[in-house]
Amino acid sequence: MPCVRPGLSQIVCLTIIYNVSSQKLKDSFINCVNVGEVCNFEASYNQTNTDLTIRVSFTLEGEVTFTDNFQSFCVTTGIDLANNNSSNVPFF
After folding, report:
1. Coil vs helix vs strand at 1
2. Taking phi first (over 0 means left), then psi (-120 to 50 degrees means alpha), and beta for anything else, what does residue 5 get?
C-alpha cells in the first residue's frame, strides 16, 4: 500500500525575462519563498538591453506518493496567485 501525503503547498516566485527587441523569452525560473521572505509583484524594463523582467508570486499545491519500493511520484493539484497584500501594484 503506498504512502500518500496530500495537501502540500509552497509559495514560489516566478521570474520571466523577455527581450522586447528580439521578441524572445530569455529566461524564466522559479524560486521557493521561504518563511520570512516575500516575492512582491514587480515589472521592470531595462532600456539598455530592452529586457522586460516580471516577478509574480504563486502558491503551488500538490501531493507526493511513496511506493513500497521507495519510488516517489508528485502531482500538482493547484496553482493560484499568492495573496500578497504588501504590493500596491495592480495586477491586470
Report:
1. coil
2. beta
